[in-house]
Write a structure and sequence with these properties.
Blueprint lengths: L3 E4 L9 H11 L3 H13 L17 H10 L15 H10 L3 E6 L3 H9 L6 E4 H4 L6 H10 L7 E5 L2 H10 L3 E5 L2 H7 L3 H6 L2 E3 L2 H9 L3
Parallel strand pairs: 1-2, 1-4, 2-3, 4-5, 5-6
Helix pairs in contact: 1-2, 4-11
Length: 215
Amino acid sequence: MIKAVVFDIGETLLDDTREWAAWADWIGVPRHTFSAVVGAVVASGRDNREAFEYFRPGFDLEAERQAREVAGCGQIIEESDLYPDVRSALTALRQQDFWVGIAGNQTAKVAELLRVMELPADAIATSGEWGVGKPDSIFFDRVVAMTPVDRDEILYVGDHRDYDIAAGRASGLHTALIRRGPWGHMWYQDADVQVAADMVATSLEDIASALAKTA
């Protein structure tokens, strides 16, 4: 029985359009070009950060993040960056007595920004805070440690076939793929997803409704 639901962040709760556009502007390439290269990198099974190498070999992502902050162009997260169903779905889950967490491959700053938004979640954490990211199994061990339930009582929800669904399943969690963002749309019919995911949904509210029937 599922007792806790933990959500990925980018393209699960947050629409990343603004942030990817900001990176394209920062490195001085057309937004469409940059998005296409990021998509090609991910489709080939590589980390999306490798896309920067095509435009700036030797790109230091952390140094450039700091440079953006100094220049007043650092990442921001506003209510409009949340997908419309985030607050309603997370609220519904908590009302149904599910423990709700948020944990994804993001910076420590993103965790701070999300906490300020007072989302209906019991805990928020990021790979930047933990010092380890998906698909490393240690990340999912930290997810388990964050929750008050057993490993096999956790549902991890994300949009990425390899980092969220396959890695989560390999770590002993239940998994759900959300069909949104480029990766969710690209992989929702993937054969590996069909095997590894407990469910594939088009909205977070669909996931909350499905879990309500099992509670």
